[in-house]
Amino acid sequence: MRLFVAIAPPPAVLDEVEAAVAPLRPAWPGLRWTGREAWHVTLAFLGEVGEDTAGALGPRLERAAQRHPCVSLSFAAAGAFPAPRRARVLWTGIHGDRRTLEALARSVAAGARRGGAPPPDEGRRFRPHLTLARCRAPADVAPLVEALAGYAGAQWTAGEIHLIRSHPPTEAGGQPTYEVTGTWPLRSQA
After folding, report:
1. 30, part of any domain
2. Contact 133, 33 (CB under 8 A)
3. Contacts of 40 (CB under 8 A, 6+ apart)
4. What is the pTM of this model?
5. In the chain, how many domains are there?
6. Plot region of 77 (φ>0 → left; ψ -120 to 50 → alpha; else → beta)
7. Less crowded by CB within 10 Å, the N or C end of the chain?
């Protein structure tokens, strides 16, 4: 099974992102736009994981979550991977307590590694974002990045992490579907 660990923004925050992105979609039909059902902030992509290993992840991820406090975040502006003029992914960025978010991502990756599911991208720089669209071939999305430059969403608090299973698209050109298989709270601030 294909797994990743993520935080899920609250519905009101996703409403704001949708309001910012919806007017842009019609002019860019060549992009594969993601929708709110797929919006999350990935902490660690684990890739293909066997059933036994998946079962061993729960206690490790719970411990990782309990080591870190809830984290205050917001979405703002936009960017693209690898770059706006030759993009494969269009995203909105994460602002707020990025230091705590990065520490949480490191702990989640370490817990996954100890649980037998080392993240294949471990060691790469953590670049938190919310994916808005994917490009089938490299595309110049600089006008979209510019259009979203002034976007600044409301602040929100991430209070839990989720282990999520990704199911492949059921039709050509479709989007994967996601199933939450475990949820663990972050340490309370009190």
Report:
1. yes
2. yes
3. 6, 7, 8, 9, 130, 162, 164, 178
4. 0.93
5. 1
6. left
7. C
Please check whether residue 190 lies inside any domain of the structure.
no
In 12-30, which positions are buried (b, 16+ CB within 10 angstroms) versus exposed (e)? ebbebbeebbeebeeeeee
Given a cut of 70, whether residue 189 has pLDDT beyond it is: no
Sheet of 177-185, strands arranged across: 41-48, 2-7, 160-167, 177-185
- Prior bond of 82 cis (ω within 30°): yes
Segment among 36-50, 67-81, 162-176 with least mean pLDDT: 162-176
Q: Is residue 56 part of a domain?
A: yes
| Domain ranges, residue 127 | 2-185
Q: Report if residue 147 sits inside a domain.
A: yes
* CA angle 137–90–103, rounded 5-degree value: 125
